[in-house]
Recover the amino acids of this structure.
């Protein structure tokens, strides 16, 4: 698990290899990840959007931007947390993801970015 705190918001990520799949006549490697967002600040905040950079060992980079996470824009009061799960397919058994969440602080009405730490995606059979 990797974790990082930005402006009182802690992001933790846990990953898992799910298996290989064929899609468009190619083998793909499926990974899941669980993200936990914890509000350690003194203000209520809301996640409004996300930005991901998904890298694989073949040097392909996919950028994903969107509203909320899994169709939700969670509001976190001080001390609260929100956990969600998602996944991705890579063309190789190795990769990494990183990004950020755009959030709004309800006390100051200002928006800010919360960094998502870089985390590795690796199929256990491919490790030496």
């Amino acid at each position: 698990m990797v974790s990082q705190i930005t402006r009182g918001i802690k992001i933790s990520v846990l990953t898992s290899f799910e298996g290989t799949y064929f899609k468009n006549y190619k083998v793909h490697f499926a990974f899941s990840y669980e993200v936990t967002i914890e509000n350690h600040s003194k203000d209520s905040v809301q996640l409004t959007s996300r930005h991901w950079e998904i890298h694989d060992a073949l040097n392909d980079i996919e950028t994903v931007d969107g509203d909320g996470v899994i169709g939700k824009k969670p509001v976190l009061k001080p001390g609260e947390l929100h956990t969600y799960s998602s996944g991705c397919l890579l063309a190789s058994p190795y990769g990494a993801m990183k990004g950020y969440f755009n959030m709004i602080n309800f006390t100051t009405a200002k928006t800010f970015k919360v960094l998502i730490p870089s985390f590795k995606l690796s199929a256990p059979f491919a490790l030496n």
Summary: Residues 103 and 112 are 5 Å apart (CA to CA). The mean pLDDT is 95.
